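Entry type: protein chain
Record version: 2
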Amino acid sequence: MEIVEAVPHEIDNIIARRARIGLIALATDHVIDHELARLLDDIAGVQLYTTRVPMEAQVSRNSLAAMESRLGAAATTLLPGVPLDVIGYGCTSASVVIGEDKVAAAIHGARPGVQVTTPITAGLAALASLGAKRIGLLTPYVEEVNAPLRAYFIDRGITIDTAATFSEPDDNKAGMITPASIRRAVVDLFKGKTLDAVFISCTSLRAATLVPELEATLGHPVTTSNHALAWHLLRLSGVDEAMPAKGKLYELGLSAPI
């Protein structure tokens, strides 16, 4: 038997030559991988690497807050020893309950110096770039989670004209709310309203690919947790080209916070 060792080979970072993006998704999230793949996979040289953080299916302030202590361990599993351009934490409501700064600190404990974003960080950046200060808000959350989310927006200068919720406490069920239900709710609730934008909150809601259609129907910008997160991950990674087919937000770069 001939055994050939150390065959000559070349090493080249081809699939992530423009951006290497990490994602910490919730163990209970049915949707975020699918949606971010749809938003990012057609961009040559951009690669998404995903890990999961433990999360209870029943969404409450306590279950959301409990993830803070698990974020560092999750971050260590994203391509150990390989630098990332940015890491996104895939939970809107937990980023509000824990706090954006504490999320970043937990991730930096394992991955010092990496850029960090969350869906609420991305959502606020998206609204700033869109110049949106008056919004419609749709969520799947129960009121104990909705109340701090509304306050978070309001405290940062965003007026909420109308807030509505599916009131679904089970994250497994939230991930199966149909796009048709989301489309119907957005049109019924927000069509004809004087709004700067609509924000559909929760990475478990399958709504990102509805954005261009909803914008055409409503006549103003629409974004979602996953839609805004993917855009922010790209912009923080230096991928700046306009992508109008993905919605009005993807025509824009980063702006100063509102």
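Comment: The first strand starts at residue 19 and ends at 26.
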